Amino acid sequence: METRRRFPPPSCTSPSPASTLRSLPAAPRSSGDRIQASDALPIPIRHTNLLFSLLFVCSIVFLMRRWRDKVRESIPLHAVDLSELVSIISVVASLIYLISFFGIAIVQSIVSSHEDEVDDFLPDSKMTPSPAPSSDLAMPVLAGREDEDIIAAVVAGKTPSYALESAIGDCHRAAEIRREAIRRISGRGLDGLPLEGFDYGSILGQCCEMPVGYVQLPVGIAGPLILDGREHYLPMATTEGCLVASTNRGCKAIAESGGAASVVLRDAMTRAPVVRFLTAARAAELKFFLEEPTNFDNLSVIFNRSSRFARLQDIQCALVGRNLYMRFCCTTGDAMGMNMVSKGVQNVLDYIQNDFPDMDVISLSGNFCSDKKSSAVNWILGRGKSVVCEAVIKEEVVKKVLKTSVSALVEVNTIKNLAGSAIAGALGGFNAHASNIVSAIFIATGQDPAQNVESSHCITMMEAVNDGKDLHISATMPSTEVGTVGGGTQLASQSACLDLLGVKGACMESPGANARLLATIVAGAVLAGELSLMSALAAGQLVKSHMKYNRSCKDTSKAASN
């Protein structure tokens, strides 16, 4: 959910565009405002840390040597001269600073670890709490009432449908009552939509609101995919016949050729708020401020305090008139991380507001992110995990398993995936059907299906190698957005699929390793799917394969009899 937040205009006159950055008046702080890091430091934080560390070590060494000499000369240790007194004060002062800077963050992360894990993965709507309902809308406790009475109240509009779970205290019963109320209001039943056999409590407040059932979706297994020396069996949730079989054939060709290899080029989730100033020159001042390395170090401290896993990497700015778009890039551990980065960005905006009181925050998301939309910025700079996967398919495998030739594959890929996509004006779509595989694995493993848009950005390359005998194929995917914790990944079915891939939950030894591995698996699956479909096209077998695997004989006979 994109939030829009306006600040009241400052009471003082806005500074002129020509004023320098350091001459900006600071916004007044109330006593209840939290003091931000580095507010009172005259030098950058990293230099301050180094200074106090050196002061602590030097003072300790000096005192140890003086006390050693006193012991040797039988001088009482409590007889302290001026130099020793200064050293003792230096040790205490530097120790207090170092404990305050490093210790509080560690203790805070331990104490609030559970809260972080919950908040980081809540839906975006949780970022801005809804106003509390007025007293006249307060819900009575309905647990003791009959179902028929509650249904009648929902149909009459006296009881809000969204409040049934909290009012009844039974998620399954609430779904059943809501389902019946919908049937009576709409006059249409939901007989084909199953109700039983699902834990509705597991989605309360995080995955889906006002449930009335669940959709059954078959999950097929393709593989094994040999990737980086390991076997992976791919769970694919789909209703498209031939998709799993085709991907499985690609996995077989890769396995018989020695497997595929992958590399993660970058890991950075993004969020890009947009702010506005009175003039473009004033907006440019903030842009220069954010691009200053020392200021970035300070902002990193503010941003990183929002979560145990969020680590700010970069801020990319784009100026349009008097509007400034700031694209924050950060690592997010094993979470996909949209809520995590949003929290960090909000903290940074609050901090910047102190030095730029005339800044008007238009939206926490200004579409420069860019989330759930096909965009050049994601295609060029990447978002989430940027992955490349490659394999060399032997000539005999191309002929035996894929039923085509290396030259035919290279030709079809050039004319179709590269030239054809260019004519179509494709943006990130220089492939045969990457979104097919991405969507199937996303749904099976509890990812956000809407992020299939940018996650399916892929360019498939094919070249003849080894004197034209073998085929080198690669899939480059710059914006694969996946996570192994939070959201739908914790549901029973999706969790089982993640467990099958060996990436269930968070990696305690190396935070983010499971999510990166999942991204490489997705890219490997896309490589297999591309290889098989392109082979079918090169061999002229596409229609034949779909008629075989995507048409039910039972349905065909019924259609014929009708």
From TrEMBL:
Key words, A-Z: Endoplasmic reticulum, Glycoprotein, Isoprene biosynthesis, Membrane, NADP, Oxidoreductase, Transmembrane, Transmembrane helix
GO MF entry, a single one: hydroxymethylglutaryl-CoA reductase (NADPH) activity
InterPro entries associated with the record: HMG_CoA_Rdtase, HMG_CoA_Rdtase_cat_sf, HMG_CoA_Rdtase_CS, HMG_CoA_Rdtase_eu_arc, HMG_CoA_Rdtase_N, HMG_CoA_Rdtase_NAD(P)-bd_sf, HMG_CoA_Rdtase_sub-bd_dom_sf
Subcellular location: Endoplasmic reticulum membrane
Keyword Ion transport: no
Main location: endoplasmic reticulum
Catalysed reactions, semicolon-separated: (R)-mevalonate + 2 NADP(+) + CoA = (3S)-3-hydroxy-3-methylglutaryl-CoA + 2 NADPH + 2 H(+)
Record-linked PROSITE patterns: HMG_COA_REDUCTASE_1 (PS00066), HMG_COA_REDUCTASE_2 (PS00318), HMG_COA_REDUCTASE_3 (PS01192), HMG_COA_REDUCTASE_4 (PS50065)
Topology of this chain in the membrane: Multi-pass membrane protein
Disordered, as annotated region: 1-33
Domain of life: Eukaryota
Family assignment from sequence similarity: Belongs to the HMG-CoA reductase family.
Protein name: 3-hydroxy-3-methylglutaryl coenzyme A reductase
Organism: Dendrobium huoshanense
